[in-house]
Prior knowledge:
By secondary structure, the protein is α/β, with parallel strands linked by helices. The chain has a single domain (2-218), classed as 3-Layer(aba) Sandwich (Rossmann fold). 35% of the residues lie in helices and 16% in strands. A 5-stranded parallel sheet has the order 2-1-3-6-7, sandwiched between helices. Strands 4-5 form a two-stranded antiparallel sheet. α1 runs parallel beside α8 (199-218). The two termini are 27 Å apart. Residues 9, 11, 14-17, 90-94, 133-136, 172, 174 line the site of flavin mononucleotide.
Amino acid sequence: MTFYAINGSPRKRGNTAVLLDKALQGVKDVIPDADTKIIHVYDYSYTGCVSCYACKRKGGKYYGRCAKKDAISSLLPELSQADGLIIGSPVYFHSLTGQLQAFLERLLYPYLAYGKEYYSIAPKHMPVAFVYTMNATEEKAQQMNYQIKLSPMEEYAGVVFSPPAVLYCYDTCQFDDYKRYMAQRFSEEKKLQRRQEHFPIDCENARGMGRAMAQKITGQNPTAEGSPGRI
Ligand SMILES: Cc1cc2nc3c(=O)[nH]c(=O)nc-3n(C[C@H](O)[C@H](O)[C@H](O)COP(=O)(O)O)c2cc1C
């Protein structure tokens, strides 16, 4: 069985990457011989959907497939055969990173059929999860409606593959050493305290999310601890 984490951050050792790694460990807790892979989208050179509509053309060669040729052309069909997808993004300007947004346009749009309602022509309906990391505190994120602002891709992924679990990680550390950066709006002391006290809990939640995904696949009942759902 193959499970992919898709890292929408340019940082390979940043907050998002760490949580994705934990989520894949959670998969392995349940399925030790699972094949787990992390895709760093910033390693690839590609664009978002270019509206060629080859994926929608009746009887066309590319119906239900992305016709655009670039560095992710062979990766997209591989991902659509996965047994589970865990998608991670830092919040950039109240949204996913642009690079991840472009990646998901290419992954999801060919499988989104324009019926009277949208329906899916994806080859597989694997479990999906989204993980977000952000500077905002939980309170600020609520005030700024981040759950709603971040939800469109979750909804499309839900139609195409399956309704996702969602995990939010708030108030992350952005810099290793705050003193070296112009960042008066943040208290270094509070950020480091949060990192020490709360980030390990975020990591455990991510691991639980991975476990819950694997349990879904193996038909086990997710435990309360293994199933963070939308938190
Ligand atoms: C270009 C840019 C835009 C950002 N915009 C937001 C934002 O709108 N809201 C927020 O809470 N954090 C924002 N952040 C902070 C990141 O979301 C946060 O530091 C995140 O944990 C970084 O993830 P990473 O360590 O995986 O790269 C922004 C960071 C960058 C670099």
